[in-house]
Amino acid sequence: MLHAPPLPTEPDAALAQLNEAIDSLRDAGGLSRDAVLGAFRRHLARIQHHVQETFEQEGLSGLEAARRLSGLTDGLVAALFAHATGPDGPGRIGERLTIAATGGYGRGVLAPFSDIDLLFLTQATPAPATLRAVEYMLYFLWDLGLKVGHATRSVAECLAEAARDTTVRTSLLDARPVCGDTKLFEEFAAQFRANCREAGPAEFFAAKQAERDARHRRYGDSPFLVEPNVKEGRGGLRDMQTLYWMARYVFGITTVAELVGPDGPGLLQEMEARHARRSWDFLWTVRFHLHYVAGRAEERLTFDLQPVIGARMGYTRHGRQDGVERFMRHYFLTVREVVRATHLLEPAILRAALGPPALAAQTDPALLDAGFVLAEGKLLPAPDRGFDAEPLQMLRVLQVARDRNLTLHPLTLRALIRHERRAVALRGDPDAAAIFLDLLCGDDDGHAHRRADGARWLSVMNETGFLGRYLPDWARIVGQMQFDTYHVFTVDEHTIEAVRVLNAVERGELRDAVPVASGVMDHLQSRRALYVALLLHDIAKGRGGDHSELGAEVAQEVGPAIGLSAEETETVSWLVLHHLLLSQTAFKRDIDDPKTILDLAETIQSPERLRLLLALTVADMRAVSPKVWNGWKATLLRELYARVGEVLAGGLSTAERDVRVARARQAAAALMDGWTQDDIAHFWELGYGGYWLSFDPETHARHARLVREAERRGAPLTVETMPLPARAVTEVTVYVADHAGLFSRIAGALAVAGASIVDARIHTMTNGMALDTFWIQDAGGGAFDAPHRLARLSALIEQALSGRLRLSAEIKEASRSVIGRRMRAIHVPPRVVIDNHASNTHTVLEVNGRDRPGLLHDVTAAISDQGLQIASAHVTTYGVRAVDVFYVKDVFGLKVENERKLAGLREALLGALTNPEDPMPLPVRRVAAAAR
């Protein structure tokens, strides 16, 4: 094969080369099936190598490569047909036979690992000789390693199937003859087109729209999912093909250019057609890279593939943006163009095929005065009140649709897209600002339809391009992805989803999931500020620096521009600045530490701000990803909200600590039925003050029973597990003699058991025993509650503490099955922050690194090796990023403040965060291989 002649780029020349190879075999007397199969196999390898090489080395676009691969495949199929029906094949056939390409192959485009769809078309029911020839060709193609979709039908059968099945009719729309009796195909095509005209387009269009809607539900209704499906996702290749099928059904077109006037039907402007062609070519280029990098028919642009394909397509770091982020933003802007093309082209095709929409004869005078009419029950701008002349009508049409509970006509969306640039004229217009705020926030007048659907109108404004023109800062986050496994949407789509969540909270639909946030919504004095803050909370992402601080500055400018008062603008700016404050405190700090609560209260200052911040935090978190919110996080936020609220109401001060400890002891004693006063006093003396402030009375009473039973039995180790489904966690309590490295060993045992630690409290009692409490979840984020798993967990803790469990080896084994290839694509640099100001009594350590089984074991072992005692641990994961916070003291019970000690601690923690078993990340390997 090394000495084989180069493959000609023209299909006819390549076919001639293959025929010459077969003739040479015949002349040598070796025309056996295996010999012919070998010749075809070598030719197919040359085709595949040629297309890949020219695509990757010579800058061939994906669409050009798809067309070249299709054309060269035509030659291979034609040569096989000639061989199978010639004297050297299984026998001559005595009837007319055409081989037609259908599906994507029929459109003349073929991806590297896509199926080859073939129709073996006969004039009448296929004869046995024909069936033998077809069977020979199919087995031959399969032996070549090709995936072949096939059907053998007569002309009458094809027409009958097309009439019954829309999928077959769609496939035949794309059909074209490859070889055989092409006149037979022309006769069939004429009858097929006549049947389509007779059936009319209405049923076909309805079927294609239903099929598209079902596909969107399956692959994600949003075009802005961060791991999109290039072929089937919204805004992907299949959506463009759906538009093509509709246009081809009505006009018989084969290219987008034919839809541009004046020679065509004039459905698209030249610029719109140019955008469509560019989107089509870009998506095909991405798809070709996907297939080649994955080595299979991969259509999903996953995290591990994104950096590789971005690099292959020439996207490099520019300013503050990584190459992969630039590539994915181009991708998302492209799929938005496809969505816009759908809104532009589909109503125009429907209008051309089915006639203009019938205007309602009795459109009421008020609607007419406002400049709108009804068509097919949907809202349209009046012919003499277009958006170009009156750009304010672009906002008014949304307001009228909302107030009258009307659907926008597809032609209205088309007009919004075509005139989105006119939104620039509305900047600074007070009437436009008033309508925009009304659409975002709704009226606070008890009308549910006015208060509950701001996200719906934001989505329309974003997809049509209006929002980015009206708010220039918004345009900077459109299509901007966050390259992590935490967020599932781009920044703009996440923001709209957050508003959608807040709408649902305000309607009371999430009362069971977020009861406190649902309750505060009825008591807010600053609804408009809350909604605008949610709109702007991530507006400065991607600019470098702290997006909260930069966003607060943006809010100071945007607030007055959209009609907010100075007071509202200040509130919005404050909320944007602190929108992460509650979540970071709840999940990273010890909320039982009075200083944590007092510092938070000092920042928040007012109950109204606390209510606003809670509502914003809940909406923001639930909009990130379905996996982010769980019962445990909800519990922590509720507790934090209650404690800060207590301070703001004047109910807590550091001077009351002893009083609170005494109250906690009394509350626990009230639940210790049948205990003598001496037994109660004994338990009281076991716990230091921090212990009594860390749990509720019921837990204290349960601990008392656990300790008394352990002392009675002289048990060296007691492990108690209690699932808490309402909080989506299982509480694990370990009572054992305290010693260095205890936390690390327990954490290692829990990792081997497959449990994920979400929080921990470590208490050394006055008798030298440790009473450590861990809250754990399973891999799915739920309570770790299966009885057999709990039994194994207890056994593993006992084995770990007795030294019979080889923790490092077991954890290493567990890591192999958990850390997937996709996750390794996300770079998580290790980071250690040491804070001696967050607590009056402890040094606070915050460590950031890639999450993996046993990470907590490694980190806590490093802390113990430095001679430090861990008082509490707070564990949070953001996708693959772990953020673990520890409250520690030295052996004398003091903060760690010696600079040399702190430097050694930081170095030890960075070493623990680095996993020596991690291989080189997959994208790096692939890019290196591509460079070779």
TrEMBL record:
InterPro entries with a match to the protein in the record = ACT-like_dom_sf, ACT_dom, HD/PDEase_dom, HD_domain, NT_sf, PII_UdlTrfase/GS_AdlTrfase, UTase/UR
Q: Give residue ranges for domain ACT.
A: 731-808, 844-929
Q: Which GO terms describe its biological process?
A: regulation of nitrogen utilization
The alphabetical list of record keywords is: Hydrolase, Magnesium, Multifunctional enzyme, Nucleotidyltransferase, Repeat, Transferase
Q: Which reaction does it catalyse?
A: [protein-PII]-L-tyrosine + UTP = [protein-PII]-uridylyl-L-tyrosine + diphosphate; [protein-PII]-uridylyl-L-tyrosine + H2O = [protein-PII]-L-tyrosine + UMP + H(+)
Any coiled-coil ranges, and where? none
GO terms for molecular function, please? [protein-PII] uridylyltransferase activity; phosphoric diester hydrolase activity
- The EC number(s) this enzyme carries: 2.7.7.59, 3.1.4.-
Q: Which cofactor does it need?
A: Mg(2+)
Q: Where is this region: Uridylyltransferase?
A: 1-367
Q: Which Gene3D superfamilies match?
A: 3.30.70.260, cca-adding enzyme, domain 2 (1.10.3090.10)
- Activity modulation notes: Uridylyltransferase (UTase) activity is inhibited by glutamine, while glutamine activates uridylyl-removing (UR) activity.
Which is a Pfam family this sequence falls into? ACT_ACR9_3rd
For the HD domain, which residue ranges apply?
Answer: 491-607
Role summary: Modifies, by uridylylation and deuridylylation, the PII regulatory proteins (GlnB and homologs), in response to the nitrogen status of the cell that GlnD senses through the glutamine level. Under low glutamine levels, catalyzes the conversion of the PII proteins and UTP to PII-UMP and PPi, while under higher glutamine levels, GlnD hydrolyzes PII-UMP to PII and UMP (deuridylylation). Thus, controls uridylylation state and activity of the PII proteins, and plays an important role in the regulation of nitrogen metabolism.
Family, according to the entry, reads as follows: Belongs to the GlnD family.
State the domain notes. Has four distinct domains: an N-terminal nucleotidyltransferase (NT) domain responsible for UTase activity, a central HD domain that encodes UR activity, and two C-terminal ACT domains that seem to have a role in glutamine sensing.
The entry's protein name is Bifunctional uridylyltransferase/uridylyl-removing enzyme
> Which gene is this protein's source?
glnD
